[in-house]
Design goal:
The chain has 411 residues and is an alpha/beta fold. It has 3 domains: 141 residues, Rossmann fold, CATH 3.40.50; 162 residues, Dihydrodipicolinate Reductase, domain 2, CATH 3.30.360.10; 71 residues, Alpha-Beta Plaits (2-Layer Sandwich). The strands form 3 sheets. The chain has a 6-stranded parallel sheet, with helices on both faces. Strands 8-10-9-7-11-12 form a 6-stranded mixed sheet. Helix 4 packs parallel to helix 5. The structure holds NADP nicotinamide-adenine-dinucleotide phosphate and L-homoserine. The site of NADP nicotinamide-adenine-dinucleotide phosphate has 28 residues, from helix 1.
C-alpha cells in the first residue's frame, strides 16, 4: 500500500511536534492504519529558518506548491489566525483532501463554512486539538454524548491563563514573569494577547457551542475578560478568603435562551474546577441523561496537542475502514477491453479483500476514453491504481456517481 501523505501548515510548537511524533511513532501508526505516514510538505512563513526535516520534504511559503504535491491525502493546519488557514483548508477540501486543524480562532469564525464544504466534498474535517489541547473532548462530545441534551458547560479553556494563575499563587511571582514562562513552555501564543485577554477561551467556547448546539450566541452579547489585571494581590486576597481565582468560560442554555461569559471568577473549594491547576484545562458538562461529567487534562503544549492531532488522523483512516466508506470514482482508459475488464472485476468483486459496490456505470467512448464510474473504498482505489497504472482516475468530488456533470478531481 502506498503511504498516507500528509502536509503540515505551520511548523512551530504544534507542527514540529506532529512531525517529530510521526517519525518516532511510525510503527504504531502503521499498526493502526495499515499504512506508513509520510510528511511530504510543510508550509511556513519564513523559508530561510533552519528546520530539522528529511531532505525530500518540500518546505515552502507558497501554498500552491503544497497543493501540487502528488498523491497528497491530508492537510494538517497549525497556523495562527483566521487567514491564511481558512483559505488554505477551503482549497484543500475542494481538492478532495482530508483536513485536520488545531486553530480555534479560525474555527470559531469559519467552522460552519468549512464543515459544509467538507460535507459537500465527502472529506473529513477534524479539530480535536482546537479545544482542550490533549483532552479527548471533541470526540467525546460529538461521538459519545450524542443522545444527551447538554444544558450547561463550565470550563477552564486556556492553558496559559491557568498556568499563570497557578504559578503566581504557588511561587508568588509577577504576571509578566509567569507569562514568559508560559511562552517558553510552548503554552502561550507568540502574541499572547488572545490568551491573557480571554479571546482564546472565547473562541474555544464558540467552537464547543457550534458542535453541541449547532449555533453560537451573538458575539457582542458575550462578556469577555482575561486575566491581565489579576495580579498577586488579588490572588492572595482570594486565597486568604479560601477562594481560588480561575479563568472560567460558561455557556448555559434554557428555554431557548443562552447565557455566556468568559472571565476570572473566585471559586470555593466545592466547585468542580477549583482543583484544576497548572496548564490543565477542564470541562464540566451537564447532560440530561448522563448528569455531570468532568473531563480534565493538559490544555496546551507540544505533545498533548500533537497527540490530539494524530488521534484525528487515525480516526479518519480507521473510520473509513470500519464503515467501508466508499468514494465515488471514475476510471478511464483508452483501451476498451481494459475498461470492460474492470466491469468483470467488479462483478467477481473482491479487491483488497472487500467487495466493490456494484454501481459501476459504463460511460462508453468519450473522445477515445472508455470510463467506468464506481464506488470504492480508499484502499480499493489504491489497488485499482496500482494494478492499472496507465489509466486515469478521478474522484467525483462530493457528487453521486449518477451526476451528469461531476467535478472530476484527479487522484
Ligand atoms: P507557533 O509556534 O507560533 O507556530 C506557527 C507556525 O505557523 C510557524 O511555523 C509559522 O511559520 C507558521 N505561519 C505563521 N503565519 C504563516 C503564514 N501566513 N503562512 C504560512 N505559515 C505561517 O504556533 P503554535 O503554538 O504551533 O500554534 C499553531 C496553532 O495551533 C494556533 O492556531 C494555535 O492556537 C493552535 N494550538 C496551539 C497549541 C499550543 O499548545 N501551542 C495548542 C492547541 C492549539 P515560521 O516558522 O516561518 O514562523
Ligand atoms: N495558547 C493556548 C492555551 C494553546 O494556552 O490554551 C492551546 O490552545
Amino acid at each position: 500500500m502506498r503511504p498516507i501523505r500528509v502536509a503540515l501548515l505551520g511548523f512551530g510548537t504544534v507542527g514540529s511536534s506532529v512531525y517529530e511524533i510521526i517519525q518516532s511513532h511510525q510503527q504504531k501508526l502503521k499498526q493502526l492504519t495499515g499504512r506508513n505516514i509520510e510528511v511530504a510538505g510543510i508550509l511556513v512563513k519564513d523559508e530561510q529558518k533552519r528546520r530539522d526535516v528529511a531532505d525530500q520534504v518540500v518546505i515552502t511559503s507558497d501554498y500552491q506548491q503544497i497543493l501540487n504535491i502528488p498523491d497528497l491525502d491530508v492537510i494538517i493546519e497549525a497556523i495562527v489566525g483566521v487567514e491564511p488557514g481558512y483559505t488554505c483548508l477551503t482549497e484543500a477540501i475542494e481538492k478532495g483532501l482530508h483536513v485536520i486543524t488545531a486553530n480555534k480562532e479560525m474555527l470559531a469564525h469559519k467552522g460552519n463554512e468549512l464543515r459544509d464544504a467538507a460535507r459537500r466534498h465527502n472529506v473529513s474535517l477534524k479539530c480535536e486539538a482546537s479545544v482542550g489541547g490533549g483532552i479527548p473532548l471533541i470526540g467525546t462530545l460529538t461521538q459519545l454524548l450524542q443522545v444527551n441534551t447538554m444544558t450547561k458547560i463550565e470550563a477552564i479553556l486556556n492553558g496559559t491563563s491557568n498556568y499563570i494563575l497557578t504559578d503566581i499563587l504557588t511561587n508568588q511571582t509577577g504576571f509578566e514573569q509567569s507569562l514568559k514562562a508560559a511562552q517558553e513552555l510552548g503554552y502561550a501564543e507568540a502574541d499572547p494577547a488572545n490568551d491573557v485577554d480571554g479571546y482564546d477561551a472565547f473562541y474555544k467556547l464558540m467552537v464547543l457551542s457550534d458542535l453541541l448546539f449547532k449555533k453560537q450566541p451573538a458575539w457582542n452579547q458575550v462578556a469577555v475578560k482575561g486575566i491581565r489585571e489579576t495580579g498577586l494581590k488579588e490572588i492572595l486576597a482570594a486565597d486568604q478568603a479560601g477562594l481560588k481565582i480561575k479563568h472560567l468560560a460558561l455557556l448555559e442554555t434554557s428555554d431557548g435562551g443562552a447565557w455566556t461569559s468568559v472571565e476570572p471568577v473566585a471559586l470555593t473549594d466545592s466547585h468542580p474546577l477549583y482543583s484544576v491547576d497548572g496548564v490543565d484545562n477542564a470541562v464540566n458538562l451537564n447532560g440530561d441523561l448522563v448528569g455531570e461529567v468532568k473531563l480534565q487534562g493538559p490544555g496546551a503544549g507540544a505533545y498533548p496537542t500533537a497527540s490530539a492531532i494524530l488521534e484525528d488522523l487515525i480516526q479518519i483512516y480507521q473510520h473509513k475502514e470500519d464503515n467501508i466508506q466508499n468514494d465515488a470514482v471514475e476510471f478511464k482508459s483508452r483501451d476498451k477491453q481494459r475498461a470492460e475488464q474492470w466491469f468483470v472485476l467488479s462483478q467477481q468483486s473482491s479487491l483488497a479483500g472487500k467487495n466493490v459496490s456494484s454501481n459501476w456505470k459504463f460511460e462508453g467512448d468519450i473522445d477515445g476514453w472508455y470510463g467506468y464510474q464506481l464506488s470504492a473504498t480508499e484502499e480499493q482505489i489504491e489497488v485499482l491504481k496500482e494494478t492499472y497504472p496507465e489509466t486515469k482516475a478521478y474522484r467525483l468530488a462530493g457528487l453521486p456517481t449518477q451526476s451528469a456533470t461531476p467535478a472530476l478531481v484527479s487522484i
